[in-house]
Amino acid sequence: MPLAIRMARDQDAHLLAAVERSAAQAFTAYEGLQWLASGDVLNASQHQTFIGNGHAWVVVDEQDQPWGFLCGQDCGEDWHIVELSVAQAVQGEGLGRRLIAEVRRWAQQQGYSGLTLTTFSKVPWNAPFYTRLGFVQLDEHSLGGFLQQQLAAEQRHGLNDRCAMRLNLQR
Ligand SMILES: CC(C)(COP(=O)(O)OP(=O)(O)OC[C@H]1O[C@@H](n2cnc3c(N)ncnc32)[C@H](O)[C@@H]1OP(=O)(O)O)[C@@H](O)C(=O)NCCC(=O)NCCS
């Protein structure tokens, strides 16, 4: 099935919660994080905001149906990845890597200095995956206010063993 990446459009917004829920099924196999498989996901209105800001991309099939998405927000000099999800049926086929590559190109063109995100340190398809793409873990001294708040909010929501990572886009 050939899949292409494009900017997300308004009509995608109501389809993306199902993609994120499907993606989260990956956690059913991970001891201690199974609850994430039925956890909260971004809603259509939140997706509309990312889309309206021009900060959302989707991977679509030949029928233009989304199988994955990446959305984020401006964060000063850096651009922050809020969510990356690829539907379970097509995970491990390089789509996550392609979405990051697309956004990396775009962010560089826009003049951002880096890409940031928060993720699980030990889950194999989280921090180890981003490390292979060139992201580095930030220690507490190099965390800006936004990332500090992000990690604190995640901890309040019961997410432990999280870290913040950054990909330097400056040549
Ligand atoms: C993380 C995610 C977006 C990656 O997308 P993907 O299309 O599956 O990723 P890719 O096919 O590009 O592969 C990425 C890497 O992760 C590895 N990977 C993917 N699924 C994996 C799994 N279940 N177990 C171990 N490694 C896995 C791949 O082997 C690949 O490794 P490589 O860097 O050596 O090539 C996707 O797995 C997903 O949606 N997971 C659930 C939600 C999630 O964790 N989102 C990230 C929040 S920070």
Describe this structure in words.
The protein is 30% helix and 26% strand. The chain has 171 residues and is an alpha+beta fold. It has one domain: Gcn5-related N-acetyltransferase (GNAT) (Aminopeptidase, 3-Layer(aba) Sandwich). The chain has a seven-stranded mixed sheet, with helices on both faces. The radius of gyration is 15 Å and the shape is globular. Bound molecules: coenzyme A. Coenzyme A is lined by residues 23-24, 26, 84-86, 91-97, 117, 119, 124-126, 129, 132.
CATH class: Alpha Beta
Query: Whole-number radius of gyration?
Result: 15 Å
- Treating each run of at least 4 consecutive H or I residues as one helix, how many helices? 5
Give every kind of bound small molecule, once each. Answer: coenzyme A
Query: In which range does the helix fraction lie?
Result: 25-40%
The shape, in one word, is: globular
Architecture blueprint of SSEs:
Elements: E1 4-7, H1 16-24, H2 44-52, E2 56-60, E3 66-75, E4 78-86, H3 95-110, E5 114-120, H4 127-132, E6 136-137, H5 145-156, E7 162-168
Parallel strand pairs: 4-5
Antiparallel strand pairs: 1-2, 2-3, 3-4, 5-7, 6-7
Residues 23-24, 26, 84-86, 91-97, 117, 119, 124-126, 129, 132 line the site of coenzyme A.
Task: Briefly characterize the structure.
The protein is α+β, with helices and mostly antiparallel strands and 171 residues long.
List keywords for this structure.
171 residues, alpha+beta, Aminopeptidase, seven-stranded mixed sheet, 30% helix, binds coenzyme A
